[in-house]
Amino acid sequence: MTASISSSILSAVEPPSAVRVPLAWLLEHGSWPVRVRTLLDLSSPTEESRSALGAVYLHPPALRLALQQRRDGTWGGRMLTVAKSGDPAFEGVGTIPAVRRLLEYGWEPDAPPFHAARRLMFRLLAEDADPAFLYELRADAGDDEYLVRRGRAHLREGAAATLAQLGCEADPRLRGAAVRALERVIAYVRATSSTTMTGEGGASQAPSTPVPANATPPSPHFLVMLAYMPRFRSEHQDEMSRLLTFLTAATPGGVPRSLLSRRDLGQPQSVLGDPLAGVSESSALPSMLAWLEVLARLGFVRRNPAWSALLDRLLDERDAKGMWQGRTTALAAPERPWDWPTFPLGEPARESLVADMTFRLAMIAKLAGRALEPA
Fold it and tell me: Disulfide: which of 95, 279, 288, 368 matches 301 by Cβ 3.0-4.6 Å?
């Protein structure tokens, strides 16, 4: 079934009843990342339980991924490439999704693999068009100045999202990059909101006039960056409200003319409206949860009744103890650089996947303002 999420924005309402979480079951049956993140994100770890936090560094998939890092700090000299679905060796994975996957595994931001990678991420924040820092995008960009700039912009947003998740919000280099990115996105939001037309049947269409040259639509990596920068968001509340209005609108039926003017690199994507509209629960549930987590971290789920209703519907797929009871055969692993790091955290066995889904739903519920009740 396809989720229809578009609706008007209403003021925040009282959170519903507490969400039951099988903490003991997760701590017994989840993979080590799920167990550790259950302690960190869903409960208050005791002194006795803190001794288990280091187990994420012995998690076999995490070790396999970390050992692929080169001496230059990259994974295979790539940045945005993701590994093929189900590949236990993570062959071909790029640096940005690799670092974020290790963070999702529960590795702390000061872990050794992140030191060199962090330096690379800060270099990618620079507002230049040096093709030497295009990595795997260099082949497609060639000597085309437009494609070089677009490629650097894609990598800049991915690097900013990674640095934000690494806890670098206070760094002036990241804050400066976030300000510039926000200015470009808000310019796009203003332009499209004033020129959007309504087509037959009231359907939203892309604006017929070009948007400003310095304006860009939000990307998933841009939203991930904001999701991990709470202080920055509090300093730009008006812009966050504009962004929420944009994200709750129906996705337009076309693409703005300025985005059609040149061939693009195809790796990232633009968010031109409601990111959950048209996402099928049966075929892309992990991606749906990735979107809900980003929107919950932004504080948007609790402010939008349709997204809250979607979260309620997904929570209804759990049993009385709070364990997810859906079909694991429908859990297609994400394949895009921004959401690939989120799933799966454990091995591809049913019990591990159930624990993955149970943990993620509980965490999203907490981020969305729901109280948790240990089952």
Answer: 368
